[in-house]
């Protein structure tokens, strides 16, 4: 009798092979069922167009969602704290030097050992590509690998964000790091490796059976892109997928009411924000910006548009982020808003524009239209501009706009990622410049004492909030929806779900 070893990726051919070799249907169906139980089918809300997390897509959440299962960092953030991962320990022999000691016995999925040369090559490329995360490493002077298990990073000034920045650096093999073809099916030291990838459509990961840590229970993860929310929900209800996330508020109750499905909602590092172009009148005057904030009842908007899916913000970054703080709320006060406008010389209001990306975020159009209605009540006519993302981004970076509504994610879980990256005068992101704010943000970035860093960010957040550099209305929650036979899912505040601890019954 012929014996076959059945592989999950070959299930589609098993029936034909079974008939050819005379194998009964029983084992075939059993293998097929087992393969289904070991494969998690995921519908991602945004297309995955690249698996290279070192260049232009270094801050792209779809890319990073997959990459985190494959490429591991030296340190990781868990439950708000930085913990060792590929590095077992580290020290600061002086304020400009960080020395990391790598774990022994860790190998890449191809069997080659992890060395400090791999960590060095990965950071070298991230910096050299000058992508969206390169700025986090502006103070790096030298990166050295004096032996196979030691990595030394020297900086031109103290860098208090070193560890949080490193949580975003997955380690790839030095021999492959500059091979563009490698990132069609990359592998690292992680629990999974890439078996197949079609840009914009699907990714298939398979278990790394030689993983150094706790082995994942899943044999495969299949990511597929389903652009329409209704399509993802239908696929979930029809047992065509097992897991999805990023559901808008008006769809959550539908899923909660479906038999065999579960919804888990959790706070994240993401928030909505509304920026003013402070280099353009009338937004050069802080009183105008403050008036716009007082004119809107964001608590009511949260109840109407985001019930159970957002909380009214208490500061310019979400409360789950290190360095966040609670600021004095802006009361909904139309009379005060009108007085502030009059004091600024706009007693009769003014006309302006507001842009947003049509691909932005949950209920963005409804949110924008509601804001327009509120501002009309104080004599401010806002012309809405819904743009394709590429056009919106181009205009945003050129400061070719009056105001904009969007969302953000403090991916590292550290205030520096958002506050210093966006609100330093040198960033030139919204036309606002404040030497005092610059001083605080740079001091916080350079401070190694994390308690002192938190105090500095609290003061920086107060300036951004009180000056109404933007309006910060809502901290967002993520809704993950999955079938009840999926177990072991652990929510992640960076809104990039991980599946290394997940299993299927």
TrEMBL record:
The protein's name in its UniProt record: ABC transporter substrate-binding protein
Localization annotation: Periplasm
InterPro entries, per the entry: Peptide/Ni-bd (IPR030678), SBP_5 (IPR039424), SBP_5_dom (IPR000914)
Domain Solute-binding protein family span(s) in chain numbering: 82-427
Superkingdom classification of source: Bacteria
Family classification: Belongs to the bacterial solute-binding protein 5 family.
Keywords from the named record: Signal, Transport
Keyword Repeat in record: no
Species of the source: Microvirga puerhi
Keyword Signal belongs to the record: yes
Primary subcellular site in the record, as a coarse category: periplasm
């Amino acid at each position: 009798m012929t014996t076959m070893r059945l592989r999950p990726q070959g299930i589609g051919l098993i029936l034909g092979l079974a008939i050819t070799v005379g194998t009964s249907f029983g084992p075939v169906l059993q293998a097929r069922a087992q393969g289904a139980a070991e494969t998690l089918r995921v519908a991602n809300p945004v297309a995955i167009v690249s698996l290279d997390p070192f260049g232009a897509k270094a801050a792209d959440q779809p890319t990073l969602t997959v990459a985190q299962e494959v490429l591991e960092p030296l340190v990781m953030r868990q439950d708000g704290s930085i913990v060792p991962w590929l590095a077992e320990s580290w020290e600061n022999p002086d304020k400009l030097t960080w020395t990391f000691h790598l774990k022994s016995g860790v190998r890449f999925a191809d069997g080659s050992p992890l060395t400090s040369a791999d960590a060095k090559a990965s950071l070298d490329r991230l910096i050299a590509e000058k992508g969206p995360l390169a700025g986090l490493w502006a103070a790096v002077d030298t990166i050295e690998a004096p032996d196979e298990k030691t990595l030394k990073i020297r900086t031109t000034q103290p860098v208090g964000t070193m560890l949080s920045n490193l949580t975003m650096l997955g380690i790839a093999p030095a021999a492959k790091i500059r091979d563009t073809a490698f990132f069609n099916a990359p592998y690292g030291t992680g629990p999974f490796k890439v078996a197949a990838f079609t840009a914009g459509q699907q990714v298939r990961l398979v278990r790394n059976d030689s993983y150094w840590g706790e082995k994942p229970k899943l044999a495969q993860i299949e990511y597929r892109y389903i652009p329409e929310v209704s399509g993802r929900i239908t696929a979930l209800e029809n047992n065509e997928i097992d897991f999805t996330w990023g559901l808008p508020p008006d769809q959550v109750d539908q899923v909660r009411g479906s038999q065999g499905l579960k919804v888990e909602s959790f706070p994240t590092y993401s928030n909505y924000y509304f920026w003013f172009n402070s280099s353009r009148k009338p937004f050069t005057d802080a009183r105008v910006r403050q008036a716009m904030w007082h004119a809107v009842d964001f608590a009511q908007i949260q109840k109407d548009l985001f019930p159970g899916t957002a909380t009214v913000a208490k500061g310019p970054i979400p409360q789950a982020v290190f360095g966040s703080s609670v600021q004095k709320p802006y009361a909904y006060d139309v009379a005060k808003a009108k007085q502030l406008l009059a004091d600024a010389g706009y007693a009769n209001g003014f006309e302006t524009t507001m842009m947003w990306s049509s691909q932005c975020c949950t209920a963005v159009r409804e949110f924008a239209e509601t804001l327009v209605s509120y501002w009309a009540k104080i004599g401010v006519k806002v012309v809405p501009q819904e743009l394709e993302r590429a056009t919106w981004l181009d205009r945003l970076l050129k400061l070719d706009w009056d105001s904009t509504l969007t969302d953000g994610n403090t991916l590292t879980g550290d205030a520096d990622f958002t506050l210093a990256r966006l609100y330093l005068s040198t960033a030139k992101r919204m036309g606002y410049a404040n030497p005092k704010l610059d001083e605080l943000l740079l001091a916080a970035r350079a401070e190694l004492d994390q308690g002192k860093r938190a105090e500095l960010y609290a003061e920086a957040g107060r300036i951004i909030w009180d000056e109404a550099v933007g309006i910060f209305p809502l901290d967002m929650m993520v809704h993950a929806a999955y079938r009840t036979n999926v177990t072991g899912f652990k929510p992640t505040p960076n809104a990039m779900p991980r599946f290394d601890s997940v299993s299927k019954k």
